[in-house]
Amino acid sequence: MTLSPALRPALPFLMSALGIFLLSAMDALIKSVAATHPTAQIVFMRYACGLPWAILYFLWAGPVAPTREMLRAHVIRGVLVVITAFLFFYALATLPLAEAITLTFLSPLFLAVLAALILKEPIPARVFGAIVIGFVGMIVIVAGKIGGGVFDMVRALGIAAAVSSALAYAANLVLLRKRAQTDPFGLIILFQNLVPLILITPFAWAVWEVPELRSWILFLGIGVLGLAGHLCIVWAFKHANAGPLGVIEYTALIWSAGLGFAFFGEVPGLATWAGAALIIGACLAVMRRR
Questions:
Q1: Which of 54, 219, 226, 257 is the most exposed place for a label (fewest CB within 10 A)?
Q2: Domain definitions of the chain by residue range
Q3: Is the pLDDT of residue 269 over 70?
Q4: Within 10 Å of residue 239's Cβ, how many Cβ atoms?
Q5: Cβ pair 65, 183 in contact under 8 A
Q6: Quick count: other Cβ atoms within 10 Å of Cβ 260?
Q7: What local confidence, expressed as pLDDT, does residue 202 receive?
Q8: Rounded-to-integer distance, Cα 287 and Cα 9, Å
């Protein structure tokens, strides 16, 4: 099946949105085990359960021996992935979900700036405007949900972790955009799981708790969703610039609202629908052909 010329430019953005939906579903599963297992163990299980699928995809796509440059770049990416995951999972465990997600949605702003500085990608006025509109939409959705607690050290550390996670995530996506232009998909997906797994293993071993059957099922789901989501995002970043794709990150709030309604009976309020309209408008703006 051949895509029409009108649809082809939008495909990377649609694939990115699908990937973010899958990762949002993964985050929901992570939240459900965050209260019963240490953060390091959750990070370990997320990549351990995804690694077998990553190996199968690597073999199916055709094994390619990595060069020294590839190894160095993917080790750096692996470090950024571990930092991002550890900080974000810690934020999920210590902050209200809406607040943690809100703070990590600083990543599209970081992404656009880092892409301009490192990849020399320009930031068109339309894209910058879409980033701002999407950020406003995110603020509208969570305006009444942030705060209301005592600002203690745990809360301060949670906020710092969420913001730092957003910065590390943006840096990881910029490096991903660069590697996706030259490296095979199978190699990228394999290292995406293998390097973080190796790095986090000693920390997970130190705090290991034997999971119950329910936790094993959730961990398996986390691994599959994480692998599938990143596969979609890798493809998208190979076919579109990093800055515009960063706007699609805001759709995670829409997916979260839908998942909350479907599985927890949470009915989105008027603010959610208004913010979602701004987010969708921002995404459509960057998907338009210049």
A1: 257
A2: 8-287
A3: no
A4: 16
A5: no
A6: 16
A7: 93
A8: 7
What local confidence, expressed as pLDDT, does residue 6 receive? 56
| Ranges 115-129, 136-150, 235-249: which has the least confidence | 136-150
CA distance 285 to 95: 32
Cβ count near 145 (within 10 Å): 14
> Structure pTM?
0.72
Radius of gyration of the chain, Cα coordinates, nearest whole angstrom: 18
- In our burial notation (b when 16+ CB lie closer than 10 A, e otherwise), range 42-53 reads bbbbbbbbbbeb
Cα gap 203→226, rounded to integer Å: 21
Six token digits for residue 245: 């794709």
**Strand (E) positions, 84-149?**
none
CA gap 131, 151 in Å, rounded: 29
Q: How far apart are the first and last CA of the chain?
A: 25
User: What mean pLDDT value characterizes the chain?
Assistant: 80
Phi and psi at 3, nearest 5°, equal -75, 145
E strand intervals along the chain = none
pLDDT at 1 (0 to 100): 43
How many CB atoms are located within 10 Å of the residue 117 CB?
Answer: 10
126 to each of 143, 247, 254, how far by Cα in Å? 25, 11, 22
Cβ 236 vs Cβ 287: under 8 Å: no
Residues in the chain: 290
Nearest of 68, 97, 46 to residue 199 by alpha carbon: 46
pLDDT digits (tens, 9 = 90+) for 215-245: 999 999 998 998 899 889 888 887 777 667 7
Cβ-contact 195, 81 below 8 angstroms: yes
In one letter, which amino acid is 86? F
Which residue has better confidence, 52 or 2? 52
